[in-house]
Amino acid sequence: MPSKPCSKTALAKAEGRARRGAALSGIGVSAGIVIARALVVGSRRGPVQEVPLAAADVDKEIRRFKAVLQASVEQLEGLRRRVAGILGEKDARIFDAHQAMVADQGLIDEVISRIREKRRNAEFVFAQVIQHYADALSKVDDPFIRDRLADIRDVAGRVIGNLLGEKAVDLACLPRRSILVAHDLSPSDTAALDRGNVLGFATAIGSRTSHTAIMARSMGIPAVVGLAAVLDQVHTGDLLIMDGVHGKVLVNPDAATVGDYRRRIRSQERWLRRIEQDAELPAETLDGFRVQLAANIALPAEVEEIRTSYGVGIGLFRTEYLFINRTSLPTEDEQFEAYRKVAEEIYPHSVIIRTLDVGGDKFLSNLRMPGDLNPFLGVRAIRFCLARPDIFLAQLRAILRASSYGKVRIMFPMIATFEELQKAAARLAQARAELDARHVHYNPNMDIGIMVEVPSAALLADRLARHVDFFSLGTNDLVQYSLACDRANPNISYLYQPSHPSIIRMIQMVVQSAYEHGKWVSVCGEMAGEPVLVPLVLGVGIHELSMSPVSLGPIKRLIRSMRLHEAEGLVDRALACSTGQEVRALCERYVGRVAPELLTN
Ligand code: PEP
Ligand code: MG
Does the Cβ of 209 fall within 6 Å of ligand 1? Predict the structure, then answer.
């Protein structure tokens, strides 16, 4: 149900300018065309200015600082109440932590004494004090603590904005029909979103596999990321046309262009209705090859729609989203309830529960601190879990307990070495022993798999295959780590090529190793949901694809339009290519021939 527009904001009208016809190019990461007004969130502001104060003005400045802090606490309380109403008490808890930071007496006293001592404006002093805390925290050797930096920055940005008299945009209560325009959207931004009124995302940074893109697809919202100039070119109130397939944003287009895009929207709607007609049909190629389709989810709440609208299993449950937007860790029982719900609701299909994959761009956004400059290569995923057995064991016990309530499989992310797999397996054995001691039931034969997403694991697949039940290819990371190309950095997105011959070779190697050892292998990276690349994936011998739910319909349509033996021929030709562009061009020609509507919709 769409939520009500905020009566007071009237943001759609504000700041609108008549700059006609600017066309911005970025990366289309979530399909669909949308025409709506822009709502710019986040700040364009540069460094906070230092303003000397006259001695007589110091007390007044301190009073202003206190009044703004109080207003910020009230703002956060309002936000907390609304998020609790929309998403529930649990998701609203992050604002408790934010309020506590604003009310921290030590911090307040330090800022006040520095305003007195240095005779400088409150926003400048406050920003300095926060920077000092942030620098200290970024040195702590605990990723969970370091990740709290994002919260500190979030709160500090709000307080500084209020001190500067900037109008804050309340993401939980937006004007109707808004396209959110931002530098980036953090996980806490997306959790708080007034989903009924967000029609699209347009962000300055990001890539097809960045957190924002994955969330946009999981919410079924068109999105374009990597629009470097978007914050300079777009203002709140501008009319935008956003094309999430071709990565285009048109600013204040003329009436003829709007009319043209409206026609395209209608044609897309007709196409989507046609695709829905395939719902009951199998994902089978014209030459009789059956493909198992599954969905990727981030939150248990998504499972109901998967069951009712798509009738497939869950090939990747990204459990890290249970851990973010909160100040404490979820308990074993809380996790057990979440996993059990998914296992029960998706039954008789199975769910692959991936253990915690924090780090990278999850938890962090544009507010990233210098200490986290290379988070994708740092203490991420299984590395974090092995370093924090308390957190890992609680999750393993919760997953094991849930295994009694459906078809549950467990999967370890980012395995790079054999030793990591051994250590993870040893923790799983320990979790079992702990449950045995408590006389708690679980499925002793639960399948154990790993994500193959680090080149070393792909190259070692023949060894690893002996010790697991399945592999799931995490192509998002496999591409990033193979081509040494940060998956969230739009400046090098030209290098991020899932169609690169090196990637196809690596996937083929993993598939062969798996089959030689009688193990199954799926793809759960975004490649599985990208129509142009799916013939390659099937051609190398993959039988199972797990993807964002919105891709299930189009991919099924493609599978039903193609032939496996042609896809195999395509792989042979791709393996003889030297560049990713050549491979992509081959694939586009093939898909353009068998299912042309997939390239245009
Ligand atoms: C992947 O790397 O392909 C994957 C599915 O995991 P994530 O996108 O969560 O890193
Ligand atoms: Mg990954």
Answer: yes
Q: Which two tokens stand for residue 566?
A: 């042609």
Cβ atoms of residues 507 and 537 within 8 Å: yes
What is the side-by-side order of every strand in the sheet holding 178-182?
22-25, 248-251, 239-243, 33-40, 178-182, 198-203, 223-225, 27-30
Distance 316 CA to ligand 1 centre (A): 9
Retrieve residue 445's tokens. Answer: 């034969």
Fold for domain 285-449+521-598?
Answer: TIM Barrel (3.20.20)
Superfamily of domain 57-164: PtsI, HPr-binding domain (1.10.274.10)
Instruction: Say yes or no to pLDDT of 4 above 50.
Output: no
Say whether pLDDT at 186 is over 80: no
The residue whose CA has the least distance to atom 9 of ligand 1 is 318
CATH tag, 22-42+169-253: 3.50.30.10
pTM: 0.75
| Residue 5 binned pLDDT confidence (cut-offs 50, 70, 90) | very low
CB proximity list for 526: less than 8 A, separation 6 or greater: 208, 209, 214, 475, 476, 498, 547, 548
Residue 19, pLDDT > 60, answer: no
